Amino acid sequence: MPFIHTRVNRPIEKETEQRLKKAYGEAISLLPGKTEKWLMLQFEDNCRLWFQGQDDQAMAFVEVKVFGGASASAYDALTGRICTLLQEEMHILPENIYVKYEETDHWGWNGSNF
Question: Which residue in 20, 37, 40, 84 has the most C-beta neighbors within 10 A?
């Protein structure tokens, strides 16, 4: 039941979004027990983002929400992978990327909760 919401201040071409979708689907397995089967994604491009008082560089804010939780080392690995993907696909430097994790004990799906 992971959800990854990626906001960037640049356009995302359809082909780039497809590559990111595929790569996120593989990367989510860095969190034990998480797979693409339950992964939901949202991409938002052309967001008005500012970092360190500037808006002239490519930047991203990524939220990863999960049912349950994971270890710090698993989150570390996923953060590294997300930063690498965004650098490769969108030329966003890792120092211009924030990744936020949110864990929850309650997650609804298909009319009930897990």
Answer: 20
Say if CB 26 and CB 36 are below 8 A apart: yes
Protein fold of 3-113: Macrophage Migration Inhibitory Factor (3.30.429)
Backbone phi and psi for residue 60, each to the nearest 5 degrees, phi listed first: -145, 150
pLDDT tens string 78-111: 999 999 999 999 999 999 999 999 999 999 999 9
Contact 29/35 with Cβ under 8 angstroms? yes
Q: What are the helix (H) ranges across the chain?
A: 14-27, 72-90
Residue showing tokens 């991409």: 43
